[in-house]
Amino acid sequence: MGFMKVYEQWCSDPYFDEDTRTELLALAGQEAEIEDRFYRQLEFGTGGLRGVIGAGTNRMNIYTVRQATQGLENYMISCGGQEKGVAIAYDSRNMSPEFSEEAALCLNANGIKTYFREGLATRTLKGVDGVNQIRKMMKDARENPPKMLGGSRVLAVRDYKRDMRTDLVTGQVTSTGLPESDVLYYELEDEAWCCVRASGTEPKMKYYFGVKGTSLEDAERKLEALKEDMVSG
Known about the structure:
2 domains, 12 strands
């Protein structure tokens, strides 16, 4: 099916919400823009499913998120892994909460348990002193990596500023393979993780978390324990 036929389908099919159809109808006559939005399906890259937010098969929206989630569900079911469930976290980027909720609803519609919790916290200090404190905190964290976080053992630390991944079990050090960034990422047991990122422009630190629980209550408990150690510790 050509891109114009797909565009017309999105404009007329009641499956798509009114705001989406209105956005697309406003593009009538803009063939280049329509082609860019519909000439392909948005694909996974090295950073996951990413793209410009907007209506169309080549854009990030709830419909492309649903499609990608359905693909994951099909794979889980084919491997017999649907009983394990899925833990979902999100961050502060545009539409991240909405897309995460859409993925959770799609998983639930297929009978797959989803443990969905916000995994973001922010710590803000004041002025120049705050900037210096954050630098010291990141330096101390690099020089003295924690052995436990939130009651879980730390298995490895990725230091993106120094391009190092240190396995705390074996002592092996390898490259992260990613660009330099003032970020520390902790790999924990039980498939949990957390990371901290220092802002480059203001005295602020952001913390991101991911946990896997046997129930929503268990996931919430683990998440709060991680937050307590990372943000208040």
